[in-house]
Amino acid sequence: MSHDWSDTKSKFSQCLCPPGNGVFTVNTAQERKAALHQKLYGQTDNIDVLWQASLDQLPASEHKAAILGISSDCGGGILRGANWGPLFLRSALIEQQPSTTCFDLGDVRVIPHLLHDKYLNEGTIANCQKALYQNQDSAYFVSPLSITEDVCDDFYAQFPDKGIFGIGGDHSISYPLTKSYLKAKRERGIRTAIIHFDAHTDLLVERLGIDLCFGSWCTHILEFLPAPHHLIQFGIRSSGKPKSHWESTFGVKQHWAHEIREKGAQAIVDEVIAQLKADQVDELYVSFDIDALDAKYASATGTPEYDGMTPDESMLILTELNKHFPITGADMMEIAPFTDSSLQGKVSSETTLKEGAALSAFLIDAMNR
C-alpha cells in the first residue's frame, strides 16, 4: 500500500479504466458506452486520455463520494448479467438524478473469467498480468476482487475522509469493498456497522467449494466489524434456514421482509437506531442488493424474489438512519439490465434501473454530506 499520490495515481491508471469500460467488448453495447462518455466528457474519442487526466483532480475534488465500477459477475451463480450494472446505472443516474454528482474513479479492469487471485496458479497470473499490464512480472493483481481491495486500500490510505460508492457486479464485489472500508475505519478508531439490504443472507461459509462469492461475502467480513451484530440485514426472505439459525450461528441482526411489512418500516428502523446508538456506532456502510426490493420493482437481477421490500420502505429506513449516523461508504449490487426472468422485458429493466438510481442517488448524496 502506498501513501504517495503519484504512486497511487499510477496504480489507478493501470488497474482501472474509464467509466463504463469495465466490460471488455469489441462491438456489444459500444453505442451505450459512447453515450455515457459523451455525457461524462462531452466527446466519444480520446476517452482514455481524458479519464487519465481526470484522476489528477481527485485530491482537490470537493466530493467526498467517489464512484468505482466493478463489472464482474464471476462471483454469481444463478442468472448472469450484473457485469453491465456499472455502465447502465451510471447512465440512469445522469439522466434521472442530475443533481447528484460525485467523482468517478472509473471501472476496475476485469478479466471476466476470474474472481480472486488466490484461486489462480502462477502461470495464469503471469499470463493475465501480460494481458492487463503488458508485463508478466507486474506487481499488480489480476482478478476483480483482488484488484478492488488493493485499489480501495490505497484510496482510503490516501483519502481517509472520502468514501467509495461501488457499483457491481454481483454481490461478491462487496467483500473487498467492505473489507477495505472496515480496515481503514478500524485503524482510525472509528466504530462502524454494515447495513445490508438483500433477499438473501449471504452468510454461507462457501458455495460449491468457493469461499468468496455472492452467497458468502458477509461471512468473511464479520471479523473486521467491531462485533458480528454490527452487520444488520434488511429484507431477507429467501433462505433454507430460519432467522434464528443465522442470528445464533453468526451473531448478526436480521429484519426479514415480512417483519418490515407487519411491524412497519418506521418501527423497525427505530429499533435499529436504538441498537446502533447503544453500540456506540460512529459511521455506516450500506450495501444494497437490488433484489431486496420486491420483484415487481426489481426483476432485472440474477435472483429476483417476490414478497420483498418496497422502494418507499427502503428509502424510509435509509433516510432515518442517515438522520442519526453518517453514511460514509456504500454500494449498489446485482442490477443486471439484460437479464429479466419475469419476462417483462425492457419495461422491467427500466423500472429496476429507476429504483436503483433513486436509491444510489440518496446514498451518494448522503456520503457527500
List the helices and strands and how they pair.
Layout (H helix, E strand, L loop, with lengths): L4 H11 E2 L12 H12 L5 H9 L9 E6 L14 H12 L6 E6 L13 H12 L10 H15 L4 E6 L5 H14 L4 E6 L33 E4 L8 H8 L2 E3 L1 H7 L1 H14 L4 E7 L21 H14 L2 E7 L12 H23 L1
Parallel strand pairs: 2-3, 2-4, 4-9, 5-6, 5-8, 6-7, 8-9
Antiparallel strand pairs: 1-3
State the oligomer.
Answer: single chain
Number of strands: 9
> Regarding CATH, which class?
Alpha Beta
Terminal residue distance: 28 Å
So how many helices?
Answer: 12
Judged by helices, strands and strand pairing, the structural class is alpha/beta
Order of helices and strands: HEHHEHEHHEHEEHEHHEHEH
Q: Can you identify the CATH superfamily?
A: Ureohydrolase domain
Estimated share of beta-strand residues: 5-15%
Summarize this, please?
Pfam families: Arginase. By secondary structure, the protein is of the alpha/beta class.
Mind explaining what this structure looks like?
- α2 (30-41) packs across α4.
- The longest helix is centred in the C-terminal third of the chain and has 23 residues, at 346-368.
- This protein has 369 residues and is of the alpha/beta class.
- The chain has helices spanning 5-15, 30-41, 47-55, 85-96, 122-133, 144-158, 174-187, 243-250, 257-263, 265-278, 311-324, 346-368, and strands at 16-17, 65-70, 103-108, 163-168, 192-197, 231-234, 253-255, 283-289, 327-333.
- The chain has a 9-stranded mixed β-sheet, with helices on both faces.
- The chain has a single domain, classed as 3-Layer(aba) Sandwich (Arginase, Chain A), CATH 3.40.800.10.
